[in-house]
Specification:
Threonyl-tRNA Synthetase, Chain A, domain 2; 4 domains; Rossmann fold; 47% helix; elongated; binds adenosine-5'-triphosphate; transmembrane; alpha/beta; Cell division protein FtsK; 704 residues; transmembrane helix
Length: 704
């Protein structure tokens, strides 16, 4: 309340300091010192002073600098000790032995033996040293005295003064006298300053080797952005919590670095191979990725562990702190308007690998599968590849976008087919699109040898929709599912099995894989499998296969939402470093506007494509009449042959027909298939009767 307001009621004084604090915003000012006991105030003051950040920083600094001196003294003493004993060679031999490098162990052992032999010789020489020293002293003194006397005689002859004979001798004596005086003067201060200089030396050594506990370091140095040095890697491995590793590294001491290859700069991080001591498996290290990352002062996603060809070795790629969160450059498709593609020899500029090298994906005769959780960049990654290939005018696209919000709309007048939408009807169309792909594939397979086939790319984005489609056709065959009668599944399998050789290729994008929405046979039919962030290791296994995941591929460790556009790619089409089962690619993001501009460039390379927005099912067929046509003049025909002839008549319409379709169409007509000589047949005469008897509306029947 302000001072110029007169209160109309009597204000109750606060009953205690706590009440005062609770009722007024400036609580501390109202605490009356006299009311708080002195010991409580002292305790609070001490606690405040002790816990104050400045006090803690000073404390940390004191401990740190003290530890530098102690650590430096320990390091210097050990160095001095090791220079006089074979301890160093023994330690290196032990480290090599633990690392399983017996050749190096023998080499260090031999060097140790040689050191011992030399030291023995030096000691034996030392036994004769006093005699040699006395003799040397006698001879030296005599020679010096004689030399100075001779010099004096020559001087005296030259100056003709007899006194000059002893002049050099006297000069030498005088010099010695001055040296003694200087030493006497300097000795006192030197004795006082010497220990200080030694301490400063120890401190410098300790500081250089960071011989202080991590918690004493200034906050900036503790932030985890430290450069990766051999000792940091060895310590991180030591602290992994794997007992045989800890013991082995303890045995090795400083020589633990012998486990490491050279630490090489690799893109926005470093790469190092670690040869594990015997008794430690690569899987144990892989399973402790988070701990290893934290020991290295990094986040889990900044450390990648793969298995190189060398046995018992893990390859660590450690990102510079925060580097993976920096965006990568723009796609060459966006920046280079003259860029063209070549389906056979070219490779799509997809993004960058972790080393910062361009990640290029060849697409020649490869079926593709991209999976990932929702909204991680699956469509963008798939579309980027299609946009690149669109720069080869020979490529033909049939696209079913089963989300249908316009992500693929720029392919209008570029793709021959563009189905967009999420309904069952769209899934049915996508299935029929694939079946037509199968028909085209079969036509190509039967073409004369040497025929050149342009690439026909069938793209199904959100393919899980097609697998989950519950609708059945008239013959009761399901469109979705993974049975032998499931139409999408069977068409996808047929293309996977035989499409490659005639350039009929299936690219699928699917979300959140399960066995139901991405059947095993279909995921394994794709040559190139790539995955964005996933929810679990079992999903990673579905997306990329067991082999890739066992070899270190871990899309489930990518961060949902943060690692958008980052793919783990296994299998064919991309250069994967020898021995690795996968490669992590950060893709260039091409947004919808940029994609539209690129698609326009691709359209300009073609004569104009008329895109079918829905599948043209052609003329309405009359199956009963068609069956009568293919039976022709024969009295009866085997049902198998009827099916074959129907397929020849219109493969687009009849290629998926089975005996069930025939049975269903003929049911109730009086021309149903029957057994003759133990085999199912259809009779011409009965068909003719059925055709003659049917009502006029039935003759314009729709698809069976
Ligand atoms: N390479 C990339 N780099 C950075 N961000 C990206 C990248 N790719 C995609 N994104 C971001 O992720 C968002 C989703 O992309 P996209 O639609 O391709 O994902 P999706 O996995 O297909 O999603 P949905 O769940 O709809 O299938 C984009 O709007 C964009 O912001």
């Amino acid at each position: 309340m302000s001072n110029n307001v007169v209160p109309l009621f009597k204000e109750e004084p606060p009953t205690s300091a706590t009440d005062a604090a609770a009722t007024t915003p400036d609580a501390p000012a109202l605490v009356i010192p006299g009311r708080v006991p002195w010991w409580a105030r002292s305790r609070n003051a001490i606690a405040w002073a002790v816990t104050h950040e400045r006090t803690r920083a000073v404390g940390r600094g004191a401990v740190r600098n003290g530890m530098y001196v102690l650590g430096g003294a320990r390091i210097t003493t050990r160095r001095a000790w090791e220079s006089r004993t074979p301890a160093r060679y023994e330690r290196l031999a032990r480290a090599a032995e633990v690392a399983g490098d017996y050749e190096a162990a023998m080499k260090w052992d031999e060097q140790g033996q040689r050191f011992r032999a030399m030291r023995h010789k030096r000691r034996m020489d030392l036994l004769h040293a006093p005699e040699a020293l006395a003799r040397g002293l006698l001879v030296g003194t005599g020679a010096t005295f004689g030399g100075l006397l001779l010099l004096g005689i020559i001087l005296a002859i030259g100056t003709k003064h007899v006194a000059d004979v002893v002049a050099p001798l006297m000069l030498a004596i005088e010099t010695i006298k001055w040296i003694v005086v200087i030493v006497t003067v300097v000795w006192g201060p030197a004795m006082a300053v010497g220990p200080l200089l030694a301490l400063a030396g120890f401190w410098a050594v300790g500081r250089k080797r960071q011989a202080a506990p991590n918690w004493t370091l200034p906050a900036a140095d503790r932030s985890g952005g430290d450069p990766i040095t051999p000792s940091i890697v060895v310590k991180a491995m030591h602290d992994l919590g794997i007992a045989p590793m800890r013991t082995a590294i303890k045995e090795m001491g400083d020589a633990g670095a012998a486990m490491l290859s050279l630490i090489k700069i690799a893109g926005c991080g470093v790469e190092v191979d670690v040869t594990l001591p015997s008794g430690v498996t690569t899987t144990e290290v892989q399973n402790r990725r988070r701990k290893l990352a934290e020991n290295l002062g990094r986040h889990e996603h900044e450390v990648f562990i793969t298995i190189p060809p060398a046995p018992r070795t893990v390859r660590l790629w450690i990102a510079d702190s925060g580097a993976l969160d920096e965006p990568i450059g723009r796609s060459p498709l966006v920046t280079d308007e003259t860029l063209r593609a070549d389906y056979i020899k070219g490779r799509a500029p997809w993004g960058q690998d972790l080393r910062g090298d361009a990640a290029l994906l060849g697409l020649f005769q490869l079926h593709l599968l991209i999976t990932g959780l929702s909204n991680q960049g699956k469509t963008a990654a798939l579309r980027a590849l299609a946009l690149w290939l669109a720069m080869d005018p020979r490529a033909e696209f049939w696209i079913a976008d089963l989300k249908g919000v316009g992500d693929w709309r720029m392919f209008l007048n570029l793709a021959a087919v563009l189905i967009e939408g999420p309904t069952d009807e769209h899934c049915i169309e996508a299935t029929e699109m694939l079946e037509r792909g199968v028909a085209e594939m079969e036509r190509r397979l039967q073409s004369p040898e040497g025929t050149d086939f342009p690439p026909l790319i069938l793209i199904v984005d959100e393919a899980q929709q097609a697998f989950m489609c519950p609708v059945k056709d008239e013959a009761k065959n399901p469109y979705g599912g993974s049975k032998a009668t499931s139409r999408y599944f069977m068409a996808a399998r047929k293309i996977h099995n035989q499409g490659r050789a005639v350039n009929v290729l299936l690219w699928q994008g699917t979300q959140d894989p399960t066995d139901q929405n991405l059947p095993k046979l279909v995921r394994e039919g794709a040559h190139t499998r790539a995955s964005l962030a996933l929810g679990s290791e079992s999903q990673s296994r579905m997306a990329l296969g067991d082999k890739a995941v066992d070899g270190g591929a871990a899309p489930h460790l990518l961060r949902q939402g943060l690692d958008k556009g980052t793919l783990v790619v296994s299998s064919a089409g991309i250069d994967i470093p020898a021995g690795q089962s996968s490669i992590t690619v950060r893709t260039h993001y091409i947004d919808t506007d940029e994609a539209t501009v690129i698609a326009d460039r691709a359209k300009a390379l073609r004569d104009g494509v008329d895109t079918a927005r829905t599948l043209d099912r052609g003329e309405q067929r009359d199956p009963l009449a068609d069956i009568a046509t293919v039976v022709g003049t024969a009295t009866r025909v085997l049902t198998q042959d009827v099916l074959k002839r129907l397929n020849t008549l219109d493969s687009g319409f009849y290629n998926t027909w089975t005996f069930l379709n025939l049975k269903r169409v003929l049911e109730g007509t009086g021309a149903e298939p029957y057994k003759s000589d133990g085999r199912m047949v259809i009779a011409r005469e009965r068909l003719a009767r059925a055709l003659a008897n049917r009502s006029p509306e039935d003759s314009a029947s729709g698809p069976a």
